[in-house]
Amino acid sequence: MSDSKIPSRVEIPFFPFGKRIAVTTSFDDAVLQDRRVVKAFNEWGLKGTFNLNSGRLLRTGKPATGSSGRIDACEVADLYKGHEVAAHTVTHPSLTRLDPAQIAMEVIEDRKALEDLVGYPVRGMAYPNGAYDEKVINVLRQIGIVYSRTVENSTRCFPPAEPLAWASTAHMYSKNPCPVNENFENLYSIKSYSGVFYIWGHTYEFDHEGCDWADLERIFKPLSGKPDVWYCTNIELFDYEAARKRVVIAANLKTVYNPSAITVSVSVDGKLTDIPPGKIVDLK
Description:
The protein contains 7 helices and 15 strands. The chain is an alpha/beta fold. Helix 3 crosses helix 4. The protein is globular. The chain starts with 9 loop residues before the first strand and ends with a strand.
């Protein structure tokens, strides 16, 4: 006789808590305008990944002034708390013009300097000037970079076939196929849609001619506050994807094991259950 308590289906949703969409962002270069974006994101519940050039940070030991353009190293930990600090090389060269030794040095030294500031491993990156090739990818793979964002676009940007050539959904000022906020609302309105919506840019662009700081709210606030959206950093996306792929569902569907260090959500006959890190959970 079959056990009626045994579930008929156990699924592993793409995102935690059964969220159907993940929203993530990234900004490059560690400029003063980051402060204003971080403040707004903290208010709206959005998360950002900030790709920093450690060699361009000021080193005065006090917060930078409005005339400096760049933030000071002493600000990094507090400013980006709750977000992600990622690499962008020490000096912002086009990596395709360098030999492997120089590529490795630019990235490793950037990681080390940033890790000294934030106190955690820096594992993600964005390519300076969007420049990369197979040589660059091969170096990054050997030195522990998990992902690197390009300046290319893809409607289905995650999970990427090559994490070290990761395309975003769009640049924040993209109008293809429509402005970013409209694009998001169109996708969100499709109840069957599930995927990653990934927007990138430079915070100094809000000060460019033809742009305005009102654009910050116009572009990004409509992305916030959705109950079925997971707001995450770039590395959180990759960490969760790696964790969900490691989940082991017993062949008899009676138990599930999560060997990772991250809680993973599973759907048991349509009901969400969180599987804590390192635990075996009885599904009956």
